[in-house]
């Protein structure tokens, strides 16, 4: 049940029998030749696909996150950590106020991970509430499927190139890009990061056959669904 396709009456009816929901987290940042909204598209879709047979409500992805290192790429938008922490906390408070008690956060952007302690603080202040933070793309089974397909996989490479994240009429390079030396990224400002990574791909080929991506997606959806169905006690 996507919230964007639901009425409040339907949500109220859901809450009469269940208190689970999903909150996807994304970002708006450069992804080389892919959409700037890759992280939001993927987090919301994997959440919706996982929740579909269960009927669990899926809220729209939070489209902005923490990505200061990409601010030299036009179209990227970043929030301050304090702003983002307050935003996530306000959303969780709203969910609680309207009756949700079990919240699965499906995160699609690694830069958002520093906000995870907010969920722990929130649970401390809301006895009986549960909040799980699930980085869908690097969950164990999904990451194993990626590695089994091609261990050279990274930001804006083939591993994020799905039919729903690529853009019509924007061909991608055919060669494999060498891995960016990650240790050199840690002490660079945004301009330095852009100078180091060029088009934005951190390394690897730009696209794999759709059948390879479909296999990985199937694993990711099942692994995310298991987070919904798992023991919440």
TrEMBL record:
Lineage: Bacteria, Pseudomonadati, Pseudomonadota, Alphaproteobacteria, Rhodobacterales
Alphabetized UniProt keyword annotations: Hydrolase, Metal-binding, Zinc
Family listed: Belongs to the creatininase superfamily.
Domain of life of the native organism: Bacteria
Cofactor(s) named in the record: Zn(2+)
InterPro entries membership: Creatininase-like_sf (IPR024087), Creatininase/forma_Hydrolase (IPR003785)
UniProt name for this protein: Creatinine amidohydrolase
Hydrolase in keyword set: yes
SUPFAM superfamilies: Creatininase
GO-annotated molecular function: hydrolase activity, acting on carbon-nitrogen (but not peptide) bonds, in linear amides; metal ion binding
Metal-binding in keyword set: yes
Example of a GO biological process term: riboflavin biosynthetic process
Protein's organism: Salipiger marinus
């Amino acid at each position: 049940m996507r919230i964007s396709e639901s009425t409040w009456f339907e949500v109220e009816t859901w809450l009469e029998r269940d208190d689970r929901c999903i909150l996807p987290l994304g970002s708006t940042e450069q992804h080389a030749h892919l959409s700037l909204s890759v992280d939001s598209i993927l987090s919301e879709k994997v959440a919706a696909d996982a929740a579909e047979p269960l009927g669990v409500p899926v809220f729209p992805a939070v489209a902005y996150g923490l990505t200061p290192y990409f601010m030299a790429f036009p179209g990227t938008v970043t929030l301050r950590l304090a702003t983002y922490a307050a935003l996530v906390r306000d959303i969780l408070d709203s969910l609680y106020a309207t009756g949700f008690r079990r919240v699965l956060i499906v995160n699609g952007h690694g830069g958002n991970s520093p906000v995870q302690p907010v969920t722990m603080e929130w649970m401390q202040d809301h006895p009986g509430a549960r909040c799980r933070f699930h980085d869908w793309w690097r969950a164990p089974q999904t990451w194993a499927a990626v590695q089994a397909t091609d261990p050279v996989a990274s930001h804006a490479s083939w591993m994020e190139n799905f039919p729903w994240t690529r853009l019509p009429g924007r061909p991608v390079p055919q060669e494999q890009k060498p891995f960016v030396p990650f240790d050199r990224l840690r002490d660079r400002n945004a301009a330095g990061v852009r100078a180091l990574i060029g088009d934005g791909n951190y390394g690897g080929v730009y696209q794999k056959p759709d059948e390879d991506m479909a296999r990985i997606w199937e694993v990711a959806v099942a692994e995310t669904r298991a987070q919904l169905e798992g023991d919440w006690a």
